[in-house]
From TrEMBL:
Annotated spans, Disordered: 1-26, 65-89, 122-148, 847-881
Species whose genome carries this gene: Rhodotorula taiwanensis
Cellular component per GO, a single term: histone deacetylase complex
Compartmental location: Nucleus
Full protein name: histone deacetylase
Record-stated family: Belongs to the histone deacetylase family. HD type 2 subfamily.
Biased composition regions of type Low complexity, renumbered to the chain: 71-89, 856-881
Chief location category: nucleus
Enzyme Commission (EC) number: 3.5.1.98
One GO molecular-function entry: histone deacetylase activity, hydrolytic mechanism
GO BP annotations, alphabetical order: epigenetic regulation of gene expression
Length: 922
């Protein structure tokens, strides 16, 4: 049958047609097959409230399905016989989803939502269900390219149903019945000379029938998923003049076979069965449903079918070339609905069912040509993109396509701290499995307050590049508006203009085949404004001009960077994945950048400051930190000794566009440690111990650098330095100076070496936005530390705010100072900006005569001639007590001059002479 010959659009409900059907049947519509359209069976009478027990009902349903499977394709579900006695209130001995034990439900409620209806006392954390295989639904068996025969509900029926326990609905402000609306047909629009396919929308006031049960309604705290959500959007489009420029696609109920493309038969039966329960019975099940974050009334199942069927009809109209794109104003939403589970206000997963439906109905079949649309164009529906910008992760959608490589699921959502649905399924590492690995892309924002700049940044950096690489044939947007400004649940700040721009970007894909389907969004005004902005874009109105957005927040850019790094394994557009060791070895020699930087530092600090590289006596430490401990020649003699422990500045990397390899020519090292050394060694005559905590854990496996530092090893190094160098020195005044990772090492010394209080005069810590290390009360040195410390935190550090609220700084953090810098997130920037404060602080702690001592002219010119070997050899006295180690001396004797100016101190073989293992010496 030609799709064009079946009128799917109406200007208004045909009164004659409406009259023909006078009952609202909750069961499936008649099914039409491709091969032989069957005549519609007689309407099924609505089952009265005197509903049978469910056990009876489900067994009959099951029997009916067995029968239907073997019967003619034009089967439909039989009515449920009303044989049992009506259920008495309080009599319930079974619950509506009979396969489940309500006490053992592994699901949670909207625990983070500040609403009565959503805060569920019995909520349990979301756990990811096991593997699921959907039933094998085939085209022709209850599933057809052609729409099922339409059935309409007239005003009288709607009102009759409204009185079925929901009489308030009839008086709801803003309820507009569909037959009051004048919309255009395709032909009308063609006459207007639109020049392109029109846009469509679908809406039915019947979907407002799904509402909380009357006795559970609290007018002071309405349930967030309220009927006014869709009436509000519809009225906004209507009053804004958009509906009159669009084609209205008729909503109809989804069929069992359609829903079963994603959901199990049991799930279909369970949801359907709720439509045969009395209000009194469903009230007794209220708590059960709240554990699933659901409410159910006798019309919920009907509305869930309408919601899903509406989106299917929109998809059909787009695929058939009747409309170019569309917006489905539907509820209940769908993206939380798992294949076997209704949850999170969702019953059937509209987006998932539609994606699967498109592939099943229009996908290529072996040996057959592609089907053609009403314009004669081939219909290609091989790959579908589902973009989910609802503020919640669409767990149900991702799970439906967990191992499907033809349906790409991209979700931007709030994640962490138990935000619904909780668990780790929406984490960035959750990326699908099997052949579908990489075809789930999660962009989990860890904070509230993300706005247009953050969302558009994620779109530009991740969504659009991956979408272009995937090249979908149609894009479905799970268009929840709970990330909109004003939504109490999402607490995000996306504006209507922001949604418009995201819609605009997506409409560039798939030749413009774009379908937005409403999901969440609980501020009735925000969702209406946001949906209106999106619809204006799809009908082709001009985009709103955005004000300058500034830059995305640090939190968002971090998330985006993490997602890109992770997804680079799967998507070329995310940059080349870090290659494996084996691949790198094929290409040449592997040398880690950290080794190169360490060698550079050793060379540079020797030439500039005369610092010597010290080998560590412990083999474990030497392996971990070789070339990372340097000392000045007067380390044992200086009156003032600076122990400077830091990480190695920051790298300003530039990337080559094509491969995302680091562009070495434009990459710079920002190393602020020299500023500290200038002060210590040129302004004063401090002895210096320089410990560089450049992480030695760099790995080239898959996900880049291992973020976990070996803190135990760093502590061992710090104590080693204290015991073996500071402990042996004659210094009367010691300054501990930590930057970045070095701050923790500094605290390790204070915690474990009580003698610090004798000689340490100043403890300086410079941190970024991470929490400073704490000193517990048991150490007994808190008062001393408070006196002698200067903890420089960026002015934006949360601790300042906490302290203001608490009225004081906590003792465990020491003497906290609010520092400001241009880029406060980086300790290097802060260090540069804070040096005047550091100098001022030290001047109050170290006696003036010790400060006034100036370095001898010769002491800092050790390597200034640039020839490390000849300048250094024999010219310096060896610091006494530095670890004996023959290797360097032996290497020098053997003339091994690979690393220029890498210096080793040895006291064993050379009577205290410094042995230079340098190039000039070879
Ligand atoms: Zn949501």
């Amino acid at each position: 049958m030609d799709g064009a010959s079946q009128p799917i659009f109406t200007q208004a409900i045909d009164p004659a047609e409406s009259q023909t059907e006078t009952t609202r049947s909750p069961v499936a519509a008649p099914v039409v097959t491709v091969a032989a359209p069957a005549a519609a069976p007689p309407p099924v009478p609505f089952v009265p409230e005197t509903t049978p027990g469910l056990a009876n009902a489900t067994s009959q349903l099951a029997a009916a399905h067995i029968q239907a499977d073997g019967a003619a394709p034009a089967s439909s579900e039989p009515p449920i016989a009303s044989s049992s006695a009506p259920l008495e209130p309080g009599q319930a001995v079974f619950h509506p989803f009979p396969e489940q034990d309500p006490a053992g439900l592994p699901l949670t409620g909207f625990a983070s939502i500040p609403s009565r209806a959503a805060v569920l006392p019995n909520a349990q954390p979301y756990t990811r269900p096991g593997r699921y295989s959907p039933p094998q639904v085939q085209l022709g068996k209850g599933l057809s390219r052609d729409p099922p025969q339409r059935r309409f509900v007239n005003d009288h029926e709607l009102k009759a149903s409204l009185t079925n326990g929901n009489s308030e609905l009839a008086r709801l402000p803003g309820v507009v019945h569909e037959d009051e609306v004048k919309t255009l047909s395709v032909d009308d629009l063609k006459k207007m000379g639109l020049g392109r396919l029109p846009s469509g929308f679908c809406y039915s006031a019947r979907m407002t029938l799904h509402a909380p049960l009357p006795r559970t309604v609290d007018s002071n705290d309405p349930h967030p998923e309220q009927p006014a959500r869709i009436t509000g959007i519809f009225n906004k489009l209507l009053n804004g003049g958009l509906t009159s420029r669009m084609v209205r696609v008729q909503v109809r109920e989804a069929l069992r076979e359609e829903v079963m493309l994603v959901h199990s038969e049991g799930h279909w039966d369970r949801v359907r069965a709720t439509g045969f329960q009395t209000i009194e019975y469903l009230e007794t099940c209220k708590e059960f449903f709240e554990r699933l974050s659901l409410y159910v009334n006798p019309d919920s199942a009907f509305c869930a079918r309408l919601s899903c069927g509406g989106v299917i009809e929109m998809a059909r109209a787009v695929a058939e070339g009747q409309i170019r794109n569309g917006f489905a104003i539907v509820r209940p939403p769908g993206h939380h609905a798992e294949p076997e589970e209704a949850m999170g206000f969702c019953f059937f997963n509209n987006a998932a069912v539609v994606a699967k439906w498109l592939r099943t109905v229009y996908g290529a079949r072996p040996g057959q040509p592609l089907q053609r649309d009403v314009n004669g164009k081939e219909i290609k529906m091989e790959r579908i993109l589902i973009l989910d910008w609802d503020v919640h992760h669409g767990n149900g959608t991702q799970r439906a396509f967990e191992d499907d490589k033809d349906i790409l699921y991209i979700s931007l959502h709030r994640h962490g701290n138990g935000f619904y649905p909780g668990g780790d399924y929406g984490a960035l590492e959750s990326a699908g499995s099997g052949p579908g690995r990489g075809f789930s892309v999660n962009i989990p924002f860890m904070n509230e307050g993300m706005g247009d700049a953050d969302y558009l940044y994620a779109f530009q950096q991740i969504v659009m590049p991956i979408a272009y690489e995937f090249a979908p044939d149609l894009v479905i947007v799970s268009a929840g508006y709970d990330a909109a400004k004003g939504d109490e649940l999402g607490k995000m700040l996306v504006s209507p203009d922001g949604y418009a721009h995201m819609t605009h970007m997506l409409s560039a894909l798939a030749g413009g085949k774009l379908l937005l389907a409403l999901e969440g969004g609980y501020n009735v005004n925000s969702i209406a404004e946001s949906a209106y902005a999106c619809v204006k874009v799809i009908v082709g109105d001009e985009l709103p001009a955005m004000p300058s957005l500034g830059s995305a927040s640090l939190a968002a850019t971090n998330t985006v960077a993490d997602v890109k790094r992770f997804q680079a394994q799967h998507w070329k557009s995310m940059g080349c994945a870090v290659e494996s060791d084996a691949e790198l070895t094929k290409a040449g020699k592997i040398e880690s950048l950290s080794d190169i930087l360490k060698a550079h530092r050793v060379y540079h600090l020797f030439h500039e400051y005369g610092l010597f590289n010290v080998e560590l006596s412990s083999p474990g430490l030497e392996e971990a930190f070789h070339d990372q401990l340097l000392v000045s020649e007067d380390v044992y003699d200086a009156e003032v000794l600076l122990v400077f422990m830091h990480d190695l500045g920051s790298m300003k990397a530039a990337y080559t566009a094509a491969t995302l390899d680091t562009d070495l020519e434009r990459t710079q090292l920002l190393d602020t440690s020299c500023e500290v050394l200038d002060w210590a060694m040129e302004d004063h005559a401090f002895g210096v111990i320089d410990v560089n905590f450049l992480s030695h854990l760099a790995t080239v496996k898959g996900q880049g650098v291992d973020p976990s530092r070996d803190r135990a090893k760093e502590k061992e190094l710090a104590l080693h330095v204290w015991d073996n160098i500071v402990g042996m020195s004659a210094a009367q005044h010691v300054i501990l100076f930590g930057s970045g990772a070095g701050c923790h090492a500094l605290m390790d010394i204070i915690r474990n070496r009580p003698a610090v209080t004798d000689r340490v005069r100043a403890c300086i810590s410079i941190l970024g936005l991470e929490p400073p290390p704490e000193l517990d009360a048991a150490s007994g040195v808190r008062p001393w530390y408070k006196q002698q410390s200067l903890v420089l935190l960026p002015s934006t550090h949360p601790l300042h705010e906490d302290a203001r609220r608490a009225g004081k700084h906590q003792k465990k953090f020491g003497n906290i100072y609010r520092a400001t810098a241009e880029d406060e997130s980086r300790p290097t920037h802060l260090l540069h900006a804070s040096m005047p404060k550091v100098k001022e602080f030290v001047a109050t702690k170290i006696p003036q005569d010790a400060l006034d001592r100036r370095p001898a002219a010769s002491s800092t010119s050790a390597g200034s001639e640039g020839d490390a070997g000849s300048a250094g050899e024999g010219a310096k006295p060896a610091p006494v007590g530095v670890e004996a180690n023959g290797t360097a001396a032996e290497a020098a004797a053997a003339g091994d001059g690979v690393a220029p100016a890498v210096t080793a101190l040895s006291t064993s073989d050379n009577g205290g002479d410094v042995v230079m293992n340098g190039a000039g010496n070879a």
